[in-house]
Specification:
The protein is mainly alpha-helical and 340 residues long. Helix content is 66%, strand content 2%. A two-stranded antiparallel sheet has the order 1-4. A two-stranded antiparallel sheet has the order 2-3. The chain is globular, with a radius of gyration of 29 Å. This is Transmembrane protein 236-like.
């Protein structure tokens, strides 16, 4: 009988393989439909479909399966990078090619927007979720299943280490390893004591976890695996909105579709960075917020409000807050903590 780990591994691999194949088939089929409408030839339709089948088969045999074997043997996980290159990039290229073919022929038959694009991005999100949730168990409770709540259980005066040393010196002289001399303290420790006293609160708050019971106990529950799903979708919403703008008729049949999909693909490359990497914040600003801000301002100036102003404000505040807290706060004028 198969163990739970084997079943989970099989489910993950089947889901990722489906996310690799289905978007390519869907996008290529829509592209084949456009070619069939323009040329009125069933042969062209089936040639495009056959090309998609050949591409998926070759990628699976020569890239995906060897890569999976390498990952299982070495415990490395470059799956997201391979998926972005093998599936997302070809899908974006076919979508752009469909727009170019229709514009050159003077035919606007298929906007080629909602279902294929949503399927491509949803598959990307699924692959990202699988890679993040893979180390976690699918059964049982999470690590932080119950959300701890702050309760003031004890209040006492917080004593710094230097005050204790000073008290010990008054009691009976300084020990050989103590900086206290005859009931006094050296200048270094006195400065540290004064600085610590000014920054330390007079009370200490101890956090204890609650065990709630009753019919509404689920309201107080925090499940980290559910938080992972929510955070992953929020991580991709800005890119999803940018690609959605490219699907509108005014933008899709114009030259602006090229830079939009190029910038969207560059922002997708952030997925290869691990969630806890310090490079994630700077890469998000450089590959998403700043380029998307410039692109959205240009789109609003050319086509009107095809994109919500909310996303423009999001890009502005994200980029400005990153620059302020990372660079501006290091200036001498803003480096003093006593100002605010």
């Amino acid at each position: 009988m198969l163990s739970g780990k084997i079943v989970k591994l099989i489910l993950y691999e089947l889901l990722q393989f489906a996310c690799l194949c289905i978007p390519v088939f869907a996008v290529m089929e829509r592209f084949a439909s456009v070619i069939h409408f323009m040329k009125s030839s069933a042969t062209a339709y089936w040639l495009v479909v056959a090309a998609s089948v050949a591409y998926v088969a070759s990628v699976t045999l020569f890239v995906w399966v060897p890569l999976k074997y390498f990952i299982l043997r070495t415990q490395r996980r470059p799956v997201t990078l391979a998926y972005v290159i093998l599936s997302t990039l070809p899908c974006f290229a076919i979508i752009i090619a469909s727009s170019k073919v229709q514009v050159d022929a003077g035919v606007k038959n298929d906007p080629f927007t909602e279902l294929p694009v949503s399927l491509v991005l949803f598959s990307l999100i699924c692959v990202d979720i699988v890679e993040k949730i893979r180390p976690l168990c699918l059964t049982g409770q999470g690590l932080d299943f119950e959300m701890p709540g702050p309760v003031l259980t004890h209040s006492e005066q917080v004593t710094s280490v230097s005050r204790q040393l000073q008290a010990n010196g008054r009691d009976g002289g300084a020990s050989p390893r103590s900086p206290v001399r005859n009931g006094t303290i050296s200048g270094h420790w006195r400065d540290a004591d004064e600085e610590g006293t000014s920054r330390t609160s007079s009370t200490a708050y101890l956090y204890t976890s609650h065990s709630y019971s009753g019919p509404f106990r689920f309201v107080w529950i925090r499940e980290p695996r559910h938080d992972l799903f929510v955070a992953t979708f929020l991580f991709w919403f800005d890119t999803v909105e940018m690609v959605r703008v490219a699907g509108t008729d005014l933008v899709y049949y114009s030259a602006w579709v090229f830079p939009i999909y190029i910038l969207a693909f560059l922002s997708i490359l952030r997925v290869v960075i691990t969630p806890d990497s310090p490079l994630l914040a700077s890469s998000s600003v450089l590959t998403q917020d700043l380029p998307f801000l410039v692109m959205r301002v240009c789109l609003v100036a050319v086509f009107g409000y095809v994109t919500p102003v909310l996303y423009i404000l999001k890009n502005i505040f994200t980029a400005v807050s990153f620059m302020y807290f990372v660079f501006m706060t290091k200036l001498k004028l803003l480096s003093r903590e006593s100002m605010f």
